[in-house]
Amino acid sequence: MIAQILILYLLIILIASLIKHHNIKLVIVLILTTVVVFELISLTLTDTFIDYRFYTHFKIESIKDFGVLFIKEIIIFLILYIVSVYFIMKASDILSKKKMNLLYKVASAALFIAVLWQDNGIIQNLFDIYRITHVEKKTFNESLKSLNIDPNAYILPENIKAVPGKNIIVISVESLEQGFFSKHFPNLLPHLHYYSDKWTFFQNMPVAPGSGWTAGSLYTHQVGVPAFVNMEDKSFKSKNGYINEEGKGNNIFQGIRDNKLVGLGTIFQKAGYDYRYLMGNIEFAGVEDLLQSYGYQTISQKNTIGKYKPIVMGLNDLDLFHEAKLQIDALSQHKTKPFALFMSTINTHFPIGIYDERMEQYVPKRDDPLEFSIASVDYLIHDFIQYLQKKDLLKDTAIFIFPDHLLMGRGGDIHQRLNMQPRQLYLLTNVKPDKFKKQTTDSIYQVDIPRFIIDGAEIKTNAKFLFDLIDTNDTIQFIEDNNLKITALNAAAIEKKNFKDEISIELKGEYIYVRSGENEIVSKVSDKSLLYDYMFSQDMVFLNETITLYKNRPIFQGNMDDDYYRLLHLIVKTKSQKINMAYLGNRQHIGLVKFPQEEKKVVFKKEEVENIVSSHKYVYQYRDSLIRKVDNNVCKEQKDIFVLENENLFNKYNLTIEYDQKSDRYKMTALNNDPFILINTLNTRFNKVLLKYIVTNDIDHASFQIFYKDDKNGSYTEDESVSIKLKKGNNEIYLLIPSKYIENKLRIDISNRSGEYRVKELSLVDCKTN
What we know:
By secondary structure, the chain is α+β, with helices and mostly antiparallel strands. The chain has four domains: about 1-135, no CATH class; about 140-495, Alkaline Phosphatase, subunit A (3-Layer(aba) Sandwich); about 505-625, no CATH class; about 630-770, Galactose-binding domain-like (Jelly Rolls). About 30% of the residues lie in helices and about 25% in strands. It has 20 helices and 32 strands. It has a seven-stranded mixed sheet with strand order 3-9-8-2-7-5-6, sandwiched between helices. Strands 21, 22, 24, 25, 27, 30 and 32 form a seven-stranded antiparallel sheet that branches. Residues about 230-250 have low confidence and may be disordered.
């Protein structure tokens, strides 16, 4: 892997040496160095070059929200990026001065590319991502046939039959791979060591492609299929921040309505189980939608029985297991119904775990915070099993414990010790080994977990999971050879809630029904005045719903699920348990308002929906290039990046600036009719900047003007400017400006008239909008 990184550096140096224009070379080097650094980030986090797992999991918005866990790594990679750019530029300059035959350089570049194209190499992995995300669409039956499966042999969910067996408890443990059981981590897992000796322990579980991250692992242990899915919706930013401002995110399961693939939920439903999934931030990556499509009751920090202090990732493990006990208490009250409770832990997350001081009363402190979190979850699992024993539930409950994936990262002391043995997963269960078709010494895989759960719980069913129908001696090789066919199968199986057809909103009894084609959303109404905000992607895939109390509240008030106005909304206002109004459109007033017929039903015709969708897409393309007037309170998060006090940030022309301490104002004197300030390039975090200009003007017919450039090498023109008339007296101007214009140097023309202006504030703030 290191050799490939070095070859990639050499290839970039070689390419850069062929470019004579310095600025063009610098741009190319900046872009290609980004690729190198991202490859190094992937190696650090996942121990492989950028692959499909990295593509689905690594997102800029995730860094913004969870970056606190990776501060050291972020700083290191920023330094590495700067050093790499400097080194490549210098090396390419030296190489370009050497007399070397062009044909030799081209041949060397071709050789480097060939090396990088080898199996699991840098270019091959990138090409595989492209193929997976652009796989040819097929029908469900065609996809099965491509995997040599007879469609008649695959029993569809509607034809499943099942007879209940034991209760089921499944614990998916964050990153707690098998290596932590080894002698290289003495006394770290005393309780799990005990259970691995007393219970059934499948310790030969290699990691297979398509299941090596949390959401992918969950999909696989539920459905028995690797999570190769090319169905990302590119417009949703969840309230927990998993989708970035450019609309790319780890949300491949967002908006799922149905799945033709048999999952555990299918069988539980047919067998009459009460089945639930407990997980902090369960909305992440569309996991909640995926589970609910299979009938699970989903439980997270937003609807627990107990009350807990939430963390960035939802719930600490101590609270998660406490809530699990409360859920078991509730489930045990219905003795006529078996239950299945699944849960996913989080505190052992890479790189250093999530430290919970409360656990210090249960486990000894350790020098390494990640080891402390691992010891903590070991204690919590044991405590939970002891609780089940006291409740006399163990004998009738099949328990399954396994890690979701390997610990991310590489290079540190913990990883060095993990690498002293094969990096694998495991399956630990209290079910006797004779209930399974495989021996504990056999190799098993994540795709086998659903079958283990069904057999271990002694559920009788005609259901067959995908790999029940595949005859192979090498599961990993089969998945690698057929990843595109598996992607096509997932794409053909998954249906999302799409509301592109005629939309009807109807009030019946205590419920609002929103329907479009086969899709339906149901909301309970009350006697209060409420706003129901149903959010859709730009292609009308249902994403989320919020309900707020209406007290003369603007219906377009900021919605944290739609910070950047990317979504379409169906906003329904109710009053006295009646529909008062329905609006379909975006939050920029591109839409249509309708009132109910007989206060019960509103209908948006298909052509009306199509017009709103196309209008939103068309206008949205241009929205981010506009400078517009706003209120001072537009920013929910802001930081000053330009103030008049710092003269290093700008150059002034035809203008003098003096600070008057007595009036706390700047006296700006325009020496002619063209006084302006040219602001240097500034660093921004967000995609918008707020300009604040507060001035007292005593001159007639004066105006204030902003000049901006789409191309930093271009000229300032009247076509790319915004002019605002100044009234006599006090003026307050607030303009929201796209950050790209700040990067291209903004020009601020103080006025079109010579004279004196008393300025209270002229500043720019990096602005995250409401």
